[in-house]
Amino acid sequence: MAQVLRPLASQPAPAELLVGLERADDAAVYLVAPDVAIVETLDFFPPIVDDAYASGAIAAANAMSDVYAMGGEVLFALQIAAWPEDAPLTALERIFAGAVDTVAAAGGVVAGGHTVIDREPKFGLAVTGRAHPSRLLRKDALRSGDALWLTKPIGTGVLTTAHKRGDLTPEDLASTIASMVALNRDACHAALEAGVHAATDVTGFGLAGHAHEMAERSGVSVRIRMGAVPLLPGAREHALGTSFGGLERNQAHFLAEARVRFEGVDEALRTLALDPQTSGGLLVAVPAAHAAAWDRARASHRVEAARIGEVVDGSGVTVLA
């Protein structure tokens, strides 16, 4: 991937590009005024649940999450769709409806998009947001002594894989979808009100993988206590013995060179630590001096979050039982 991105990395970057490839984060950030920066992101993928409306809502929440992970507010979005010629257009209409309603719930609007014919359906959005340039939430701003908080339970990769196999109960599917369509907007607002500066959203690299991203870019180490990590209903059960492409890639990369180390963690929790998430929660680093403000802001915005670890001196991620 580094080789493929070389032409992009060789571009001259204007000073107004606050976050681009050289300081890669959850989204690109471009300064347009002293107190206004544009936050831009793009995400799309094949549907992961059978319900078309839910697929659109999940894709929209997932795409907008990167704006919230940077401390931004959603302004508008453009839809991106690939659709088979022989697939019913009524299903695509429902996907669009789910996305439109979810963007509206975020205070934004879908302003257009583009659709192409493809053998495999895919859907997503390009999202434009805004943020104050001095209040960005960054991956590289961890400091030793910070407490790590997670704002959504994990397990969506394992559970949607079980759904594809026909092994997931309707109740567990409903709770998984509800988690994925939930916006990270309130968690973002709470983090900004508390004055914290480091966060990311937990998506394709899984909890431990995204924690490693933050630790590596900040020059510190992270400890995660899996016993404190909230799990979606059915996640532990379906994690046992499961395997799929995204999980295998995470394991191959993050277990190599001890990027992520496990101590006393059972097989199911080792799987869930690197389970690729769709529209996961925010991983927020809270300095001790901001702990009381974070507690007040979480309560004010009704953000359910769990303290799952801490930042220490060193390197890599250690996952404990």
Description:
With 321 residues, the protein is α+β, with helices and mostly antiparallel strands. It has helices spanning 6-9, 52-69, 89-105, 156-164, 170-181, 185-194, 206-218, 235-239, 245-254, 267-273, 291-301, and strands at 17-19, 28-33, 36-45, 73-83, 109-117, 122-131, 147-150, 198-201, 221-225, 260-263, 282-286, 306-312, 317-320. Helices cover 36% and strands 26% of the residues. The two termini are 33 Å apart. The model has no long low-confidence stretch (mean pLDDT 96). It has a 7-stranded mixed beta sheet, sandwiched between helices. It has 11 helices and 13 strands. It has 2 domains: 6-134, 60s Ribosomal Protein L30, Chain: A (2-Layer Sandwich); 138-320, PurM-like C-terminal domain (Phosphoribosyl-aminoimidazole Synthetase, Chain A, domain 2), CATH 3.90.650.
Itemize the secondary structure elements and their pairings.
Elements lengths: L5 H4 L7 E3 L8 E6 L2 E10 L6 H18 L3 E11 L5 H17 L3 E9 L4 E10 L15 E4 L5 H9 L5 H12 L3 H10 L3 E4 L4 H13 L2 E5 L9 H5 L5 H10 L5 E4 L3 H7 L8 E5 L4 H11 L4 E7 L4 E4 L1
Parallel strand pairs: 4-5, 9-13, 10-13
Antiparallel strand pairs: 1-2, 2-3, 3-6, 4-6, 7-11, 7-12, 8-11, 9-12
Helix pairs in contact: 2-3, 4-5, 6-11
Percentage beta strand: 25-35%
N-to-C series of helices and strands: HEEEHEHEEEHHHEHEHHEHEHEE
Distance between the termini: 33 Å
Instruction: Give the number of DSSP strands.
Output: 13
User: Largest beta sheet: what is the strand line-up?
Assistant: 8-11-7-12-9-13-10
Characterize the quaternary organization of these chains: single chain
The tally of helices reads 11
The low-confidence runs, each spanning 5 or more residues with pLDDT under 50, are none
State the CATH topology of the largest domain.
Phosphoribosyl-aminoimidazole Synthetase, Chain A, domain 2
Known CATH architecture of the largest domain: Alpha-Beta Complex
